[in-house]
Predict the 3D structure of the following.
Amino acid sequence: MTDSLTSIAEAERALRAAAVKTSPRCLGMASFTDDATKPSEVAHICSRCPIKVECLAYARAARPAAGVWAGATWGGRESSHVAQRLDDAARIIAQDPEGVSITEVARRLDLHEGAARTVVQTLVRTGRATVVKRHRAPWTYRAVAA
């Protein structure tokens, strides 16, 4: 239980620090904390959010009962879908000790490369993967299981 509380606190600190630096559009918007809001209603904001990775890491750790976090609600089906996608990406990365490119993760999970990048960055920031080699473009870096 203590480890869980520690990871929630760490994720919350990272989210707050990122929010202070970037002032995301969702800050102070009631639609993000309202239980009746559907993720599709705010998807246009979440998709371009500069702190989506931190938001997702926090939501995954804390499992907030209300609101939209990183484009999903965490009390229902959307949260399990996001958690499953993270687990699937972690398994793909763990299968190859040399590392797996984001392009490969996107192909194997049938995702757009930007979505795969967010998934892999979340794995890195939550300690489930590490960056091994970064090529010129950030979307081609490779990660291996931590």
